[in-house]
Amino acid sequence: MYHPTQTKRNLIHWLLAPVLLLTVVARAQQQPPQDSLLQNPTLDKVVEYALTHQPQVQQALADQEITDRIIQGKLADWYPQLNFAANYQRNIDLQTSVIGGNPIKFGVNNTSSLQFTGTQTIFNRDVLLARSTASKVRIQASQNTSANKIDVVVNVTKAFYDVLATSQQIRVGQEDIIRLQRSLKDATAQYNAGVADKTDYKRATILLANAKATLKTNQEMLVYKQELLKTLMGYPVKGGLEIAYDTLQMEREIDLDTTQTLSYASHIDYKLMITQRELQEANVKYAWWGFIPSLNAFGAYFLNYQNNNFGELYNQRYPNSYVGATFSFPIFQGMKRVAKIQEQRWTLRKLDWTVKNLESNLSTEYTRSLAAYKSNLAAYLALKDNVELAREVYDVIQLQYKSGIRAYLDVTVAETDLRTARINYFNALYQVLASKIDVQRALGQINY
Fold first, then answer.
1. What is the pLDDT along the chain (448 residues), one digit of tens a residue?
2. Which residues form the signal peptide (predicted)?
3. CA–CA distance, 338 with 355 (Å, rounded to integer)
4. Which of 152, 354, 149 is nearest to 270 (CA)?
5. Kindly report the CA angle at 371 between 368 and 376, in degrees rounded to 5?
6. Within 13 Å, how many C-alpha atoms sit on residue 421's CB side?
7. Selecting from 3.40.1550.20, 1.10.260.40, 1.20.1600.10, 3.40.50.920, what CATH number does the domain 33-79+124-293+336-443 have?
8. φ and ψ at 2, to 5 degrees?
9. Rg, Å, the chain Cα set
10. Domain locations in the chain?
11. Domain pair 33-79+124-293+336-443 / 80-123+295-328, same fold
12. Phi and psi at residue 330, in whole multiples of 5°?
């Protein structure tokens, strides 16, 4: 049986289906894909993610592609340039000339032509410059991409270590609070038993409150540092990022050969500068080529149509063709070319001094980063031993306090020493690793 209501509902469903489909697709696109979130993000995974998703790197890759297309466009001028044009013209009033006292009209009412033209560059300094510098420009674009990747790797690595340092401070703070709560309980019990006065448990209360405040500060700082790391990685803002680390593995990675010598040619900034200098040498040649003539060949083939009747316009054609060449040589330009050559030479000389300045800066940066690494390494080795000593001292004094041999002031001092030693140890570890990255960058050992 025919049901108009049911038919109407089916029609509405068919009309709404595309709208619902588009809505689902739009929502799916707004949500970050599963592969954009890291599982168990170690340092290697974080760096790899940043190299793939960081906007700065993607912009550099886009610039590299743009540069390649520009080069292709410049080199295309070496190929024949072929063109086609067609036109039609309706002469309303024909041109009239008076000859022997008689007015005579020239031309026809309808004209049309098909034009095939072509040019070929035989020599031109612009296309010669494009061909001679194409490989260097591509190298420069690739080096710019590498420089951006290196910056991202260094910044992400340091941010990763900074997050780890803050996470360790939070862990130390949480353990301190547990220990201080136990210490407060002991101090209160001794006060209630009449063994100690009330200053002991008040000191414990103050230390516990300070520890909680410090923990809260570090927790808030961790939120900021995690967001900074996400930004440097190009990570989704709302995506979770609980980094994974192995302290023992990180301790094994602090070693660095400090006897290495600096090689300027290995540094990406030096490579970029040398490439820029080579391109400037090409600009000097380009200025000299201003004294060389240019030569171009050309040719054309025309199909002309003329008739007073439009319907018969294309019944008869009148072809026309020619070939030729253009030789151009600027004789005098008011010493413009000489001035341009001198300008490019001075620019090249300026780049030579820039290279020397860069060498000095790279040497200074290497010395600074190496000194920072050595000092951080020495501090790390010293603080590593201090942690065990401070823990041993605290345990002994805590037992002596419970036995009534020591005052609670000694316990607070030992507690402070232990907390400081642990925090300084983890900070020193991450500072050593961060300074190692700086040394490797100064040596040009970080390459992508």
1. 444 444 434 434 444 444 444 444 444 444 444 447 878 788 888 999 999 999 999 999 999 999 999 999 999 988 999 999 999 999 888 887 878 778 888 888 999 999 999 999 988 898 889 999 999 999 999 999 999 999 999 999 999 988 988 888 888 888 888 888 887 887 788 777 776 677 777 888 888 898 899 889 989 999 999 999 999 999 888 888 888 777 777 788 888 888 899 999 999 999 999 999 999 999 999 999 989 899 999 999 999 999 989 888 999 999 999 999 999 988 888 888 999 999 999 999 999 999 999 999 999 999 999 999 999 999 888 888 888 888 888 888 878 877 777 777 777 788 788 888 888 888 888 889 999 999 999 999 988 8
2. 1-28
3. 26
4. 354
5. 125
6. 20
7. 1.20.1600.10
8. -80, 125
9. 40
10. 33-79+124-293+336-443, 80-123+295-328
11. no
12. -75, 120
Spatial separation of the C-alpha atoms in residues 140 and 152, rounded to whole Å? 18
Backbone phi and psi for residue 112, each to the nearest 5 degrees, phi listed first = -155, 155
CA–CA separation, 319 vs 107, rounded Å? 17
Q: How many residues does the structure list for the chain?
A: 448
16 backbone dihedrals φ, ψ, rounded to 5°: -85, -20
Q: What is the DSSP letter of 265?
A: G
Class of 80-123+295-328 per CATH? mainly beta
d(CA 167, CA 219): 8
Rounded distance between C-alpha atoms, residue 244 and residue 236, angstroms: 18
Rounded to two decimals, the pTM is 0.78
- What's the sign of the alpha-carbon dihedral 118, 120, 124, 127? positive
Q: Which amino acid is at 34?
A: Q
- The tokens for 322 are 């020619």
Q: First vs last Cα of the chain: how many Å apart?
A: 73
Residues 188, 205: Cα–Cα separation, whole Å = 10
Question: If we measure between CA atoms, which residue out of 110, 75, 228 comes closest to residue 160?
Answer: 228
